[in-house]
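Hi! If you just cloned this repository, the fastest way to understand the data is to look at a raw example. We've pasted two of them here, unedited. The first protein comes first, obviously.
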Amino acid sequence: MSQPTSQPLHTRVDSAAAGQRWPLLGAASWLVSPAILAAAYAVAQASPETGRLLVGSAGVAVGVLASSVLGLLLTIGSRVRRERWPWVGIAGAIITALPLGLFLVGMMLRL
């Protein structure tokens, strides 16, 4: 006589969905540049003296570098978490690195 079990017979986990998470960090990597731009705008509105500093070359350099670093860190975090759709985080890192690339090209061409 067999013993009744309390577990269902069909407990198979789909291997394609196992270990996959929603791309929260990958999606957040897209929002880094607008968030830093919004923060700089808010600081410039609060204090015009600080706003002049942010518009200068040093302020822009720090902003685009911070954007690139944060976008890269969020992308690495999304890969470590094994998020679903890895292209979201990779594209976010590329998007957040574009302002840094444009800044460096502008410095080289003295624009």
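Ok, and the second one:
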Amino acid sequence: MKKSMITLSLALSVALADTATTATTAAQESQEAKAAPIATAQAEPSTSALEKIASSKFVQALAGSKVSGFAFGRYRVAGGRDAKGDTYQWRAIANIESGRYHGWALGSGIIFTTGAIAADAKSSEFSGGVFGSRAGRLNTSNDAFGINSVYISKEMGSSDKTYFKGDIGMLRMDSIFMDSNLDRGIGLVLKLKSGGLTYALSGYDQWITDALVLNFAGRGLGIQSTSAGTEIGNNLFIFEVKGDAAKFGGVGFDIAYAYADKLFNYDVFAQASYGVAGFSAKAQVAAAGLADDAHIIANGNTLPAAGTNGAQRTNLRNFFANQGQYMAKHRGVYNIVLAYKGEVGEKHGFSGKLGYLGSWGQGYGVGFKANAGLDFAGKSWFNGLTTTKEGFGLFGSGATKGSSISVAYLGLTYEYEKKYGVGLDIAYVGGNNYMPILSRSSLTSAAGTGMTSVRSQDLLEITPSISYKPLEHLSLSAFYSIFALDAQWQYVGFEGNYKF
């Protein structure tokens, strides 16, 4: 409707201008006709102003605008010996990009998000807890509603040959490192596709990822009242190369490198995969190395500690006790996955994965998002406990010096008619992982970590799940996670998700 009104308004404006021009031209032609012989040729059929407007490339570009996004509602319940609570989570994102006019396009998006993923120690009477900084707050709670992106885009070439695209503005960060729905930056992205390879170079003056803000909360910062509008001002640069498996005999790869000034010298991710007849093998490596005297440059209203020359700086020693004594400077994770995906007839589909994940160096906090781009099984162990400490975030539990993790996992899925699905995820999590202690647990927090309510634990997650797609773009799902060994609790989730 909105797009139609814009098009009609443009049409009327141009039509009025065209009418005035036509009237002037007609008067001139009338004077000329008196002095000229009567034309014997028949005049060509005229085209109306509205028809001219409708056929113009500019209006066709507006009519070719693309809208994409999703909306979901979630309900989570935690119970058992070590946990208790329930919570809702709601999120809606809509992105629009105009059609191309000589290769140029405008794009923007809106976001609404509120609620929490983790249910422990929460009550559905209060649905806050997403934290983050994706949009302005409606009030002092965690409700967020606002603009998700505003940018200008230019593309050249053909997508099946050599193709170039550049975006500049406030962007959704699209990289193996990032969650493109929630992570944002102000900067420039350049992409080039040629010969089965995709190159991407991006630079951001200001940026933030959802997982890092949640990590800040896990370090004790009062995110609800102080982090609205959180941003990191350490200039960030990312270079990524992807190889299309279809162009390289079934071998695909993705290599990415990131650098943030005065924060980390490197954050790298690399993966290679090979597939044949439904079977595939994948190897992944991720690593990060913090800069000497690493610190975060940020708005003084969102993170503590003032710096010099008017800049607001927060040393990472604020997140780690005793001036960084417990900060892991070099961290690394590796992951090996064997997978299968296939169909029997047109109605039955099967998929499965089996793998092992481990770490090296001083820690395992290597990522900008909770899963760090790694492919593993399990639905809850890496983000369902508190969302602020577990997982592979740069400032989560894996950022503590001496931390390590090992995970053996299995994931199985069966689908019928591509509408009904059942699944089973099993994951064993070990190592010196400093996983969070839940609200009703009798475990005591480990000393010397720079964090509270964490302790190395052996966890076993067993999660059966079901799903149903009544419509092409609508899916309904539920899961039931059972945790055993050092933590004993249950985590139940329901979700409705519509994508457009």
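That's it. A detail worth noticing about the second one: Confidence is low (pLDDT under 50) at residues 1-41, 128-133, 222-227, 300-318.
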